[in-house]
Structures
1.
Amino acid sequence: MEVMCGKTAPDFEAPAYLEGKFTNIKLSDYRGKWVVLCFYPGDFTFV
Amino acid sequence: MSAVAVKREELESLGVQVLTISVDSKFSHKIWQEEELSKMVPGGVPYPMLSDPGGKIGRLYGVYDEELGVNVRGRFIIDPDGVIQAMEVLTPPVGRNVSEMLRQVRAFQHTRETGEVMPSGWTPGKKTLKPGPDLVGHVWEIWKPDMAFD
């Protein structure tokens, strides 16, 4: 599946940390909301 | 991440859910939050910090660097229908501009609500255009390139 503007974002599920708790996040659970998905290289990097 | 966290209230008022994601484990996210992020922003990062071991999700989004073994800085704005409206990808040394992300969210929300389109450099309050047959060939009459700059 190719990622492209104007096309559906590929769905995924991932383990996550949120405010003191471990949880699971599924992208499609946020249908009906605006989502900003931010990839970054790694924890403890400088910028 | 901390720069996105300080805009928490603004993002909430726009109805935006932020998800952050790296190849680190959820345990690493916890320690980063407790040891560093919470010292940069009161309460730390208030968004789910997702774990993508091996870059499986990063590959899906075309942002996983096989050589570095990390996801580069990819930012995707996804609308309520699950459609990607904007994407920006940077290599690791340069951070993103959160204000520009907020501007784009506002612009995409505005076009979704009104059908109007936003010319180059649009910020809230600036002129929008209403697409239609009457506008064809007449944009120059109502919009000038210097309006793209503050």
Note: The domain at 2-92 of chain B is CATH 3.40.30.10 (Glutaredoxin).
2.
Amino acid sequence: MSAIDTTTASDYTAGEMMTVTAARALENGMTCFVGIGLPSEAANLARLTHAPDVVLIYESGTLQTKPEVLPLSIGDGELCESALTTVSVPEMFRYWLQGGKVNVGFLGTAQIDRYCNLNTTLIGDYQAPKVRLPGGGGAPEIATNAGEVFITLKHSPRAFVKDVDFITTLGFGRDGKGRDKVPHIGKGPTRVISDLCVMKPDPDDRELTVVSLHPGVTREQVQEATGWEIRFAADLETTPVPSARELEVLRELKARTERAHAGQ
Amino acid sequence: MAEILSLHDAVARYVEDGATVAMEGFTHLIPFAAGHEVIRQGRRDLTLIRMTPDLVYDQLIGAGCAKKVIFSWGGNPGVGSLHRLRDAVEKGWPRKIEILEHSHAAMACAFEAGAAGLPLAILRGYVGSELPSVNDQIKFIDCPFTGERLAAVPSVRPDVSIVHAQKADRAGNVLVEGIVGVQKEAVLAAKHAIVTVEEIVDDLATEADYHPNACIIPGWAIAAIAVAEKGALPSYAHGYYPRDNRFYKEWDAIARDRDAFSRWIKDHVMNGRDA
């Protein structure tokens, strides 16, 4: 690591703060089952900075992949071409995920509630939806079969709701006890990273609690963007700012990605 | 033994009104040309199975071919919604459709169980999810050995499966390379399988990319092979052409509007421009 790594940058966006913080959650050597979008951006930033040996796997069957540019879809050719190997989708879900080979699942979501339950199915009533969302995809089993789960999404009152309209994917259930006494189940969500703060489930009752505010963000801002009265940890911290190198790598990655997708 | 047919004849022979059809290809090798042929032949009341409906089922749904869709992730990857799927579910246009939704893990297992000739698939899945409350095809059973509660879903056994692959040889053996998804499982789970290919070569075993562990589907497990050059566009064929990401983005605006969609189908599918 060069001296530049510790240099802090004052000029960054809230989105960059979120991606860098999410990336830092991944430790070198972890095996991570990556969701498309923000998780994929964060996981690849981690791989290109502090965690070169992080193993990234995508549900398309691409195992230990090192994409040069971010995939638009979960099955872009780039993922296969840069993978150690590509297995069938049943093998991916059965052997690698269900078989317990994944340390962390990295997910995004449309809605999350105070017990970290995720909704990617619909807004409104199932029989007469107001908005039909894409559905579960890999998330329901990633969330229960991975060792733990990181979640990243932008903060807004529509996204952070007291109770999700539909539990597509288990956090800790409607009462916070959804994982209690279930055999062979992962720890579940251990942190949620938004563009305003970092949250963790309370160790006792599992309610999502703000543990770290991003620099310049106030408690009031987080509360306004959250659909329930959110708790703050007693020892509330300030999230470390992105380093110049993290920002440089992230910006290059996004620029490469834009060029690649525009060229096709 | 696979018969080498034209795409028109393969679809006409095996895809009947009311059939249960799986067109597979996980983002890669999506059989668009075959999907368009189904639209051109005006098939109706199909039960369409696909893990990720993608644009191909958005088009079939919007064209009125589907009565039911079984899927696990119904979005436009990296872009947003499938607007034709949404319009059908939310507003019943062009007709009301029934949906049955699963998770990827369950559908992948269900295809595998179909290929294995089993009535059901078992997985450690759906724990705490509310999907079982809206899909009566998700049940739970107790393991007879350990007592563990496990999810069970019926296997997928389509009347016809359609997949796209890079190449076949004169004996109908098919080589699939790259992201292989559940293509092999879909072929083996179906009563009849149609495989569209980029090209037909004399003998796969003499091809440079043939090796002992290559993903090969034997010709005698396939009903029909049809050549469909660029048959997976706008998805891609590993080694042949890349994914047309720009079209996936453009589709958002086309599919958002019923008239724009209908015009697109008329111009690009009914008039056969992409065939």
Note: The CA atoms of residues 52 and 151 of chain A lie 21 Å apart.
